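anyone else get weird line breaks when pasting these?? whatever heres mine. first is seq + tokens for prot A
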Amino acid sequence: MPARNRRLPRHLSWPLTTTDICSALGETPSKSLQLSFFDHHWTDGTLLKASWVPPTGSNYGTGLPPDWWSSVWLTVGPVPGSERATTRDLLREHALPELQRWIDNARHGSQAWALSRHSISWQVAGQSLNLSHDGQPYRPVKLP
């Protein structure tokens, strides 16, 4: 992202770009794939989070619009600039392929799964990657 468009302090950087994500997932941001970049740290250290929005409505007008149903919302959190390269490599090699499988499962998996909200998120701890499903505690990812 160009420096003039940044919303981050100079010492922070996003570990992934829109191009990284689109290349790994084989699609561009759209109504079915929303992409955003946080301008502050998550308190739990999350760097990449995907949320599934199920196709549910509401009779009282408080539900989500139908064009948001069955969509994936991705958010990327910042890291210190000195950690960007290492974090980017870990996320590109391990998190993005897993994210692609998760999105495919969400879109083409069982109807029971698709009718509930779900999330998947990653954090980096040193040279290792941690994974969380549906808000559960983070667990280490076994890297090859």
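and prot B, same format (seq, then tokens)
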Amino acid sequence: MLLNECPNSVDSACALAYAESQVWREKNSQLILDEFLRKYSDELNDVEKAKVYTNLAFYYNDEGNIKEYEYLSAAVKLNSPYIETYRGLALYYFSSYADKGSVEELKRSLLTYEKGRSISDNYEMNFGYAVCLFELKEYAKAKTIFL
């Protein structure tokens, strides 16, 4: 087994959790990564913890996505270098804005996309950022990104 050979390898734990998710066993994915964090948290650096938190966030599908938010926020606090962290959190905030109409959530989404764009200036992050600008009625700024 992958984790038997390298029990404290973040990449191995994340790969095993991913494999479990591919056969529709998200609960196993959660258990693997939660247990991995419990066992090896003291040995992991912030980047490794951020990777595990980011992966964990996408295996939870609870009401209101509270666990997703908690894990992504924890990864951001560790200055996650992973674009998935910021994309996931920005989408969380944007969904909250769409559901509740909260401009504060929209502004949080914008700021999170902005942070993500500093890590990776890719299409998806730019598009999300521009959508937030558009929703905030900052049409001229959004237009420069959309074009």
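btw re prot B: The chain has nine helices and no strands. The radius of gyration is 17 Å.
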